[in-house]
Amino acid sequence: MKSNRLHFLITAGGTREYIDPVRFISNASSGKMGYSLAQAAIKAGHRVTLVTAVKNPQFKIKNSKLKIKETVSAEEMFKAVKTHFSKCDCLIMAAAVADYTPIKKSKIKIKKSGRNYIIKLKPTVDILKWAGKNKKKNQIVVGFALEDKNLRNNADKKLKDKNLDMIIANSPASIGAEKTAVHIKTAAGKWIKMPTAGKKAIAAGIICLAESLY
User: Fold this and answer.
1) N or C: which end of the chain has fewer CB within 10 A?
2) Rounded to 5 degrees, what angle do the CA atoms 46, 178, 75 make?
């Protein structure tokens, strides 16, 4: 069965956008969902390329079907996704990629002073939108939407605007949590709410849905 031989490209963690050699802009993403998705896909017999911006010492699977690519910034993650995208059957963008990055990075540590310090930012590349635009007919692109209000409406808009095959929506309460509840919608389907459960169980459900789409 072909679904047992899919190649998943999965992203995890929050990127770091450095201001100087020691300081950076980031978010609270732990990468647990991305790693859980990789585990679930491997357990289901698939091949996985995991592009991660965080290290997870609890993730100890040694498997010939797993490749891990470590990145730091949104730009590095974009390059890694671009490199491996054409070879995957399904991309799941679980990473919390920074929306902005400093226009200039100081080469030396910025010294503290009594004055205000202004950091000018520029938008990062929208990796998910790029993937939705460049996917082939036989590729599945899955995105996540973290919303603090109008969860389903905003996630549905993201699903359509970025030409996704599936969207997983959750609230800020899921960040770093062991358990979470998610709302899932496919491009041609209706909303499904998965009850609160551990991220491993949620991940297994998402992999199952991705298989059915493929």
Assistant:
1) N
2) 60
